[in-house]
Write a structure and sequence with these properties.
Radius of gyration: 45 Å
Number of strands: 11
Strand order of the largest sheet: 6-8-9-11-10
CATH topology of the largest domain: Heat Shock Protein 90
CATH class of the largest domain: Alpha Beta
Number of helices: 10
Shape: rod-shaped
Distance between the termini: 36 Å
Order of helices and strands: HHHEHEEEHHHEHEEHEEHEE
CATH architecture of the largest domain: 2-Layer Sandwich
Length: 442
């Protein structure tokens, strides 16, 4: 597999399949990138600099306090200096007796003291840190040769809390923006989903008269194109039906007169042959009309498929066809019952004409209904299986359907299957003959 194919494979695997998640991803990813870059820049150029300056300011105050304390050895002056530092410099500092410096002082740096510890080291004396989270303060103890200095330092004097405010605002604004984007995208997706549903229903032969263009200009344009296509298809079907109905009517009148005239003549072999030809012509005319009509006039109805198929096959059994039906699971589907029944009759009758055993099976899955009709007859050559669905195509004189050998039986069957949104195919049967499989979406 080439690199281009690998990229395409993983792109298809990782990217969401639906349009709404993809649109949200297109909007959210830039927001995440912008917030991430902003966060890095904020941390480097603002938070660290502010925290560093605050820490250096605290270290300078402490260093100046120690210098003033050393400059005035008088105890009374030192008390005045300490009080002045506490009030004016807001520095809670205490000078106590000398203490022994702990051995191996280890200072643990964290997010708050990352900039403070390097600043305090510049004072030049060993020190320890004790965190007082309950008081939100830090106790700093300096060990000088003549005395000990304790400083209670609030977090806010050396740590900038704006980083939390920035993080909260970044998260809140991202969530708010994403929520607004999802809300608007869902509103924009509804017309597209309605168009997809209308197209699907029209493909299944259902009415879509209540569909109206809405949404963005591009979606409205696609919807109008769909409506124009729907009207053209309906007009084409209606014109074809009217034309063949008119031809059928015009042909039936002289055929009826011919039949009456032949019936009034004396019986002879020539008369019988002519009657058979007239009957054949009537069957051909009816076949043309049935092919033209399709299922346009019948409305789809919710149907429990298991009893429907079983009852249809029972009617065929009464006509002497050796049919076996295998199915244990049913499903409710919207079908044109008369058309669907005719579809089954065509396939089972053809199978019974060329085989002594006909098996019909129905399998229901999560997304599809599959009906298979197979026989133990001679079958159809693989190279001609697609041709038999073409109008007026016949393998031989005897391979016909109930349309009277016009070559429209399987064509009508495929039209019915397609009108229900399904597909039909042929393959070899385990019985040795032909297996016809119809698959319908659920």
């Amino acid at each position: 597999m080439s690199l281009k194919d690998k990229i395409r494979y993983y792109r298809l695997r990782l990217l969401p399949r639906r349009l709404l998640p993809r649109s949200i991803l297109i909007l959210v990813l830039p927001v995440i990138l912008i917030q991430s870059v902003s966060g890095v820049l904020f941390y480097d150029n603002h938070w660290q600099n502010v925290s560093r300056r605050l820490a250096l300011g605290v270290a300078a105050d402490i260093k100046n306090a120690i210098a003033l304390y050393d400059a005035f050895p008088d105890q009374q002056d030192r008390e005045i200096i300490v009080n002045e530092l506490r009030t004016s410099a807001d520095l809670d500092i205490r000078f106590t007796d000398i203490r022994e410096k702990p051995e191996n002082i280890r200072l643990k740096s964290n997010n708050k003291t990352a900039e403070l510890i390097p600043a305090l080291r510049k004072i030049g004396y060993p020190f320890t840190l004790n965190d007082l989270p309950a008081d939100r303060r830090l106790l700093i103890t300096f060990y000088l040769p003549d005395y000990t200095v304790e400083v209670l330092l609030p977090y806010k004097k050396f740590f900038s809390s704006t980083t939390y405010v920035f993080a909260f605002w970044a998260l809140f604004s991202s969530l708010l923006f994403t929520g607004i984007a999802i809300l608007f995208l869902r509103n924009q997706m509804r017309p597209i989903l309605r168009l997809a549903e209308a197209t699907k229903n029209f493909g299944l032969g259902r009415d879509v008269d209540d569909f109206k263009p809405e949404g963005a200009a591009e979606v409205r344009q696609a919807s109008l194109s769909f409506l124009q296509m729907r009207d053209r298809i309906r007009r084409h079907i209606e014109e074809r039906t009217r034309m063949l109905a008119g031809v059928s009517h015009d042909l039936r009148t002289p055929l009826t007169r011919m039949r009456l005239q032949l019936a009034m003549m004396d019986k002879s072999d020539d008369i019988e042959n002519l009657l058979e030809d007239v009957t054949e012509m009537e069957r051909m005319v009816n076949g043309y009309l049935d092919f033209a009509r399709g299922g346009d006039k019948e409305k789809a109805q919710p149907t429990d498929m298991l009893p429907f198929v079983s009852d249809t096959l029972d009617g065929l059994k009464k006509n002497g066809l050796p049919v076996q039906f295998d199915c244990t699971t049913s499903v409710i589907m919207d079908i044109r019952r008369n058309d669907f029944k005719r579809c089954l009759w065509n396939l089972v009758t053809n199978a019974g004409r060329y085989g002594t055993q006909v098996n019909v099976s129905m399998i229901v899955s999560e997304k599809a209904l599959e009906i298979a009709v197979e026989d133990n007859g001679p079958g159809i050559p693989e190279e001609k299986r697609e041709d038999v669905f073409k109008a007026f195509f016949r393998l031989d004189e005897s391979r016909n359907s109930e349309t009277g050998g016009v070559g429209l039986g399987l064509t009508i069957t495929r039209d019915i299957v397609t009108a229900h949104g399904g597909k039909i195919s042929m393959e070899d049967s385990a019985l040795g003959g032909l297996k016809v499989v119809m698959t319908f979406p659920i």
